[in-house]
Amino acid sequence: MDSDVLGGIGMKERGAALITVVMAMLVITMISGVFFFLVRSNMKLVNSEQGAILANNLADAGIQYGISLLLVDEIKAGDEPFSLEDLPSLANPPSDPLNNGGDFDIWWENGSEANSFIIFSRGSYGKITRTKTAGFTIGTEGVGGGEGSGGPGGGEPAYPYWDLNHRYIEGDYVVYSVMIDGRSVERLYRARHNGYVGELPGAPWTTWQEITNHYRVSNFYELINGNTIIYYGSTYWQARWNGHGTGNEPGKNTERSSGMWRELIDEWRPYEAYPEKEVVSYNGKRYRVKWNNPQGPPDASDPNGPWELLEDCVTLQSVVISPSSMIIKEGEKVTFRATALFSDGTTEDVTSKVIWSSTYPQIASISGNVLTGVMDTGVEGCNATLVSASYTYNHQERSDIVINRVGVTEIKVSESHEGDEDSGLIIWEREVLSGP
């Protein structure tokens, strides 16, 4: 074969080999680059995760540091409710508290109850931060009946926050912040029926029903749903019929026959429309109603008038539920007793004679006189139900005396008991992630 031809073939083979080598080097370089990138990314991920853990631990340390400041002897020894002014000054937290770099900042606000505070702690490690918020109570005995009493539930709300662009259907729950006593607090709402996009929780005439035992102008009160007993002012009230809270404020009606609410009290009230055969107290005396919706105040000076003075007739005055105002755990059962109190000071066990009810069976359900804790909503002021015992008393000697009295007590449901330690208790905690 011609030498020129052989030389040409050799050149082609050497060129192909060179291309193969170059391609192999490119592939190796690419693989090395990918491997280096993966290693570098993994190292960054590990460092970031380590930083996140350290920042989280720093935030935890800040919460505990804040609690330690709340539990100084000067605070624990006080007899009056504490406020921010009573707290010790925020000393500079220790530098590098974990001996591994990083620090934390803390601050606090007053809680919804006396001696309760909200502690904020921000742990920082490099550019990574973790923020935690904890509700803390100094001395946790007793259960109040005020707005939002008892503080938040045992954990984070298990419901989504309200979305302006979402259309909610019947049975949906959302969390939404509203202003109460000049403070923004989260409240829990339930859709009564299918709603429209943009319906604002807490606004009148919407689908939203706030889960609360307090009167709300935005709520609709429906006898069949059981939410017809509320706390307003300093007493409990019961709805006579279905109606909106708007325009039906308890005790504000000017005509006795138009009031939606019945105040659950033995004393005569000028705004009440009393039925025939009912008995009320007025100025230390007992009066029977002769016919429906009598003009008041009670006065028996006219024998043909609507009032009869009961001088020697023993009648029912009230019903008391025991135990009362307590906190129970999810799944815990409580057996109640109802006691009737009479005008002569005598009592009677009427546990089996009353009608038992729970305003929010999704929080605590009742069967007979046994209540079962169902769910802690985790939302402040929205984790309690009102247990009621309604007793209709028919006088044994007088058929013209029929009295109805309702005993009421508030029961809260928590994942864990509040008040187990006098020194204080973290009643809820929230974590917020921030930073890269």
Automatic annotation (TrEMBL):
Coiled-coil segments on the chain, per record: none
Entry GO terms, CC: extracellular region
Chitin-binding type-3 domain mapped to chain residues: 159-211, 212-264, 265-310
Keyword Acetylation set for record: no
Entries under InterPro entries matching the protein: Big_2, CBM5/12, CBM_sf_5/12
Domain BIG2: 315-403
GO MF assignments: carbohydrate binding; hydrolase activity, hydrolyzing O-glycosyl compounds
Chain segments annotated as transmembrane: 16-39
SMART domains for this protein: BID_2, ChtBD3
Keyword entries, A-Z: Hydrolase, Membrane, Transmembrane, Transmembrane helix
Domain of life: Bacteria
Single GO BP term: carbohydrate metabolic process
Protein name, entry field: Ig domain protein group 2 domain protein
